[in-house]
Amino acid sequence: MSFVPTPSPTVVDQTTLMKKYLQFVAALTDNNTPDETKLKMMQEVSENFENVTSSPQYSTFLEHIIPRFLTFLQDGEVQFLQEKPTQQLRKLVLEIIHRIPTNEHLRSHAKNILSVMFRFLEIESEENVLICLRIIIELHKQFRPLISQEIHHFLDFVKQIYKELPKVVTRYFENPQVIAENTVPSPEMVGMITSVLVKTAPEHEDSETRTHTIIPRGSLSLKVLAELPIIVVLMYQLYKLSIHNVVSEFVPLIMNTIMLQVSPQARQHKLFNKELYADFIAAQIKTLSFLAYIIRIYQDLVGKYSQQMVKGMLQLLSNCPPETAHLRKELLIAAKHILTTDLRSREPLAYSTLADLVHHVRQNLPLTDLSLAVQLFAKNIDDESLPSSIQTMSCKLLLNLVDCIRSKSEQENGNGRDILMRMLEVFVLKFHTIARYQLVSIFKKCKPQSEMGVVDTGALPGVPATPTVTTPALPPPPPAPPTPLSFALPAHAHGPTGVCTQRFPDFGQPGPAHTGAMCGQPAA
């Protein structure tokens, strides 16, 4: 079938144009039409697709093209070489399907399209799988189809990808394979789209070379992995009653994923791929964002993995490449959402409960347990992430343990003295911190600046001196006229020491102690 470009739709009427494009689509399943010709036909359909969707014959056109598109995609062979016309054609057909407006004309076709898209997630190339994912998202958001077995199969497929991720990371980073000269690697060998030069006749030195661009398999792609969490979230929003227990199974997989790291040795290797590594970090951060969404729903379950979660978040902050600022921003946003949950408030509550328990049973605890309690609560005193009330409570508990540590040390012949010295050191360091960073602000809160003048921070231990600012002294206020004191000294005598025991009144208040020389009374 020969290909003749169609003139502008302003010249040819809409009916003729639609018939022409129907012939182009019908040629997709014609084995006698070369893939190159099919590609040119679909390129023209794609370029004029807005005119197609605005045509009065659009509904009829859709009835014909959707079955043809799906038949072509299912019957065709999956390709992993970007230069192949077949791969370019498959990708273009998927892009056209994605561009079809999600209105009522498409509703009756949504189920069949989704069935094919879900199946392609497991077999197609990275390029095509990414388009399939966008189609799945759009159709579910718009039409909200009833839950099907395909949804459960999709969730199982995603869980399997997470389970296999450690092996994938090892393959791509820890044990990268060297691509032999003049060979085209398999899609399982490459973690991202990779171009290689291959000689057409290797036995000749002047042989022509061709470029082959290999696309990784979608199920092993880190770019695809980064897009999967948002679909799982969408599925939960649509089918939460049916898949609540299934989604809970993702929590341990998420924790394992964010804990994964590429070894320092692998990152220094000459075959280390920085771009692929950025894809890996992006997939981890997207997975953490997934956790930030479901954390309130599965809070008790997530709490069991809190140590892993915190460690994984810190690792991501440390490992995120400096050139990927957008990923670091997304990581911080996810961390912020996680920290706004009740998991944050559980830590102070846990410390408070534990402190009460230790306080009530302190007399019965052996010296080793008392030492552990001191070690734990001594750390809390300088932990700025904890409320000041918890720091104060920790100080009080340590003071209440002093006598117990002394007595237990004597009974068990233990190292109570070392524990007490450690406690003393903790308090001294805390006072040093207060003096250096908090005392000045405390003074400023106690007195107005005008009354206090300038605080000499150099007088505080550990605080560098600041230049003294001389403020001109204000003239003293005029003295108030003296108030006459009217009181009578009662008759009294001094003791043998000569110190008067009499208190004389001053405005109705007891006066100071005084000697006989002050009041003129003789000693007794």
Write the layout of secondary structure elements.
Blueprint: H1 14-26, H2 35-47, H3 49-53, H4 58-75, H5 85-99, H6 104-107, H7 110-123, H8 126-143, H9 149-174, E1 194-199, E2 209-214, H10 222-248, H11 250-259, H12 264-267, H13 274-294, H14 299-303, H15 306-319, H16 325-339, H17 342-361, H18 367-381, H19 388-400, H20 402-412, H21 416-446, H22 449-452, E3 499-500, E4 505-506, E5 509-510, E6 514-515, H23 516-519
Antiparallel strand pairs: 1-2, 3-6, 4-5
Describe the structure.
- By secondary structure, this protein is mostly helical.
- Among the domains are: 9-145; 347-444, no CATH class.
- It has 23 helices and six strands.
- The strands form three sheets. A two-stranded antiparallel sheet has the order 1-2.
- Helix 18 (367-381) packs parallel to helix 21.
- The protein is elongated and about 100 Å long.
- The chain starts with 13 loop residues before the first helix and ends in a 5-residue tail after the last helix.
How does the overall form come out from the CA principal axes? elongated
How do the strands line up in the largest sheet? 1-2
Helices and strands, in order, run as: HHHHHHHHHEEHHHHHHHHHHHHHEEEEH
Distance between the termini: 141 Å
Biggest sheet architecture: 2 strands, antiparallel
Structural class given helices, strands, pairing? mainly alpha
Q: Which runs of at least 5 residues are low in confidence (pLDDT < 50)? A: 459-463, 466-474, 480-492, 494-524
Percent range for helical residues? 55-70%
**Whole-number radius of gyration?**
40 Å
> Strand percentage, roughly?
under 5%
Q: What number is the mean pLDDT?
A: 84
Question: Count the helices. How many?
Answer: 23
